[in-house]
């Protein structure tokens, strides 16, 4: 069941990511005006974080069930420290893009790659990887959910 959850979360994040990449620049320019055009690349880098944010939500459910709150707190704390460190390095040369890249790397490190550090969480890493690199699994499950919802 956890694999199903990761499949749905990863696919949903990827669908949203594609939609935001396609419509985000136009929406920002229409809603905010052309003076906000420099924010578009920053927005798009932030959008790349979505799969890691979505998958972390599924992982959080597992953390509660398996009483792994300490591991979760440590990985999130390490992610926050990584974000601060990367911001110190990347903002001076890159500005807002540097901050967005720091955030992306921090989410990826804390929510995905950190799962390699413990034998308890390595199976979760493999599930997430499967979900990220086989999005058709989630599409199939989303279609099943849609049919169930539509048919009551």
Description:
By secondary structure, the chain is mainly alpha-helical. 84% of the residues lie in helices and 0% in strands. The chain contains seven helices and no strands. The protein has helices spanning 2-32, 39-47, 50-66, 69-94, 96-111, 122-133, 135-150. Helix 1 runs antiparallel to helix 2 (39-47). It is flat and about 45 Å long. The mean pLDDT is 95.
Number of E strands: 0
Outline: flat
Largest sheet: none
Query: What radius of gyration results from the CA coordinates?
Result: 17 Å
Distance linking N and C termini: 22 Å
Write the layout of secondary structure elements.
Blueprint: H1 2-32, H2 39-47, H3 50-66, H4 69-94, H5 96-111, H6 122-133, H7 135-150
Helix pairs in contact: 1-2, 1-3, 1-6, 1-7, 2-5, 4-5
Sum up the structure in keywords.
mainly alpha; 152 residues; 84% helix; flat
Summed up, what is this model?
With 152 residues, this protein is mainly alpha-helical. The protein has 7 helices and no strands.
């Amino acid at each position: 069941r956890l694999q199903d959850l990761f499949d749905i979360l990863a696919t949903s994040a990827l669908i949203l990511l594609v939609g935001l990449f396609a419509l985000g620049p136009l929406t920002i320019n229409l809603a905010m005006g052309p003076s906000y055009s420099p924010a578009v690349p920053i927005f798009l880098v932030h959008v790349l974080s979505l799969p890691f944010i979505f998958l972390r939500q599924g992982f959080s459910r597992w953390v509660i069930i398996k009483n792994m709150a300490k591991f979760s707190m440590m990985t999130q704390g390490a992610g926050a420290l990584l974000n601060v460190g990367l911001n110190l390095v990347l903002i001076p040369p890159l500005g807002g893009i540097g901050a967005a890249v720091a955030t992306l790397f921090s989410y990826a490190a804390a929510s995905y790659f950190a799962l390699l550090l413990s034998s308890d969480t390595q199976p979760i890493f493999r599930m997430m990887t499967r979900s990220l690199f086989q999005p058709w699994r989630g599409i199939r499950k989303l279609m099943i959910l849609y049919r169930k919802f539509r048919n009551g």
